[in-house]
From TrEMBL:
InterPro entries membership: Prolyl-tRNA_editing_YbaK/EbsC (IPR004369), YbaK/aa-tRNA-synt-asso_dom_sf (IPR036754), YbaK/aa-tRNA-synth-assoc-dom (IPR007214)
Source organism superkingdom: Bacteria
Enzyme class: lyase
Keywords: Lyase, Protein biosynthesis
Domain YbaK/aminoacyl-tRNA synthetase-associated: 28-143
Keyword rRNA-binding: no
Family (UniProt): Belongs to the prolyl-tRNA editing family. YbaK/EbsC subfamily.
Protein name: Cys-tRNA(Pro)/Cys-tRNA(Cys) deacylase
Phylogenetic placement of the source organism: Bacteria, Bacillati, Chloroflexota, Chloroflexia, Herpetosiphonales
Protein EC: 4.2.-.-
Species per Swiss-Prot/TrEMBL record: Herpetosiphon gulosus
């Protein structure tokens, strides 16, 4: 394995059974990654920074062809309300840049909620902690590495 990031270091503590895929990132979107890596968009998962009334900052991991449901996330966390965190706080809290946010190896430890649809795939793709670098991994390994709560937290865009 060539590239090491904080995210890959965390995953290595759980398993070495993952693959890194790199591409030339210019737009920093999941759509770009899916197209350049020739992967279906529903297999690519994006990591979003949210903030709950009681729980504070939480990372939500949802399929890229879905929207995060803030209501479902709040329900899963037992929180009254959850909102998207301001983009300005993203790098400060996670240590990652937009388009390269991983739920693993964040600067500040925070809970992770993984959408249950991840388990419809044998492997999913998510950011490995830098723009243009994706990690292909079994959902169960991601759940274990991130100590993630699994819940229905997304709404389909279509």
């Amino acid at each position: 394995m060539g590239t090491r990031t904080r995210a890959t270091d965390v995953m290595c503590r759980v398993t070495s059974d993952f693959e890194l895929l790199s591409f030339e990132a210019t737009e920093f979107t999941a759509e770009e990654a899916a197209e350049k890596l020739n992967l279906p968009l529903n297999m690519l998962f994006k990591t979003l920074l949210t903030k709950g009334e009681k729980k504070g900052y939480v990372l939500a991991v949802v399929p890229s062809d879905h929207r995060l449901s803030l209501k479902k996330l709040a329900d899963a966390l037992g929180d009254k309300r959850v909102e998207m965190a301001p983009i300005e706080e993203l790098t400060r809290l996670t240590g990652y840049l937009k388009g390269g946010v991983s739920p693993l190896g964040t600067r500040r430890a925070m809970p992770v909620v993984l959408d249950f649809s991840a388990f419809q795939h044998s492997r999913i793709s998510l950011s490995a902690g830098q723009r243009g670098l994706q990690m292909l991994v079994a959902p169960s390994h991601l759940q274990q590495a991130a100590k993630a709560l699994v819940a229905d937290i997304s709404d389909n865009d279509s």
